[in-house]
Amino acid sequence: MQTKRSSSYVALESLSQKRVLFLDGAMGTMVQRHNLEEADYRGELFKNHPRDLKGNNDVLVLTRPDVIGGIHRAYLEAGADLIETCTFNSTAVSQAEYALEGQVFRINQAAAELVRNTIRAYQKESVDRPCFVVGSIGPTSRTASMSPDVSDPAFRAVNFRQLVDNYREQAQGLKAGGVDIFLIETAFDTLNVKAALYSLEQLFDEWGERYPIMISGTVSDASGRMLAGQTAESFLVSLSSYPIFSIGFNCALGAKDMHPARSTDIIALFSADALVPGDGLGKLLGFQVWVSVVLAELELCNHLRVSPQDDVGTSTCHVGRDGDGLFPSSLRDDIGLALVVLGVE
90, 60, 183: which is closest to 132 by C-alpha? Predict the structure, then answer.
């Protein structure tokens, strides 16, 4: 079924043709600076909750929106164009670890509203420039392609349908809160990604409009493979039939060690150029191009004069960089793939 593009899709696509866009940096790194305690995570809303909540950053959109909103504002002031919601773990399967699976829709809606309101306030008080609310959809704590039990390789801790239902609930909450873009991030299992894509495609049909989808994968070792075993090239090709706005990889091992994962043969499978900082899964070592190429040349880090500031993750000091003129539009050349056969390779 053909659905029209949302107004945010049209605006994002137009802006991406004019300049490099910057996504904000890590949320966890910035939250750590506030030295929050259990009481901050509980607030009055969950004062008598039976489980410890410290470490569940997503619930802070309900209990300490001032902290999360302040982080969003700091990234806007640093120059970020795309601001992510604090919803990396806001699926039922992930929130079940805190006995908060019943709060999933509420958390996602509140998180999106918080970003939207922060952007509006920033545009009114400071600079009226285009900024977008990016709905963060994390990988969940489970994988559909592998067994967590080495003695039972056929076992799965979650199945495809369960993931679809989890992602569907999350996406509905994000939509209710006013997101412009959906970001499927830190993907380590392509089957999980396809479950998220399937749920989004169903919702687009129901909503009658299509939103931009961005995907961020992550590699797990120096071989450049994802946790499920796929290479960067295989990951890209396996998702190339989907109508994705952008795709790429996060910081993972760091810029230098990520170099072997770069593909110079698979360029411009998708539409836009963007630049993102790492998100805190590995040591902070710089920026990567996030869409038209799998990884930027290492010289990019020198161009941006990026240096580590924290042990993990990025912060506002890594976002406020001038991206003008970094990447010509020729990066989006059509490679004209006719047939690609793949597995994990």
Answer: 183
Q: Within a 10 A sphere around the Cβ of 151, how many other Cβ atoms?
A: 6
With a CB cutoff of 8 Å and minimum separation 6, the contacts of 10 are none
- What whole-number distance in Å separates Cα of residue 139 and Cα of residue 338? 30
CA dihedral sign of residues 276, 182, 76, 56:
negative
Q: How far apart are CA 167 and CA 213, in angstroms?
A: 13
In this predicted model, what pLDDT tens digit does every residue of 71-117 receive, in sequence order?
999 999 988 889 999 999 999 999 999 999 999 999 999 999 999 99
Q: Per the structure block, which two tokens stand in for 195?
A: 């479950």
199, 135, 208: which is closest to 167 by C-alpha? Answer: 199
Catalogue the E-assigned strands of the chain. 4-5, 21-22, 82-84, 132-137, 181-187, 209-210, 213-217, 246-249, 274-277, 287-289
Residue 110: what are its φ and ψ, rounded to 5°? -65, -40
Task: Give the pTM.
Answer: 0.79
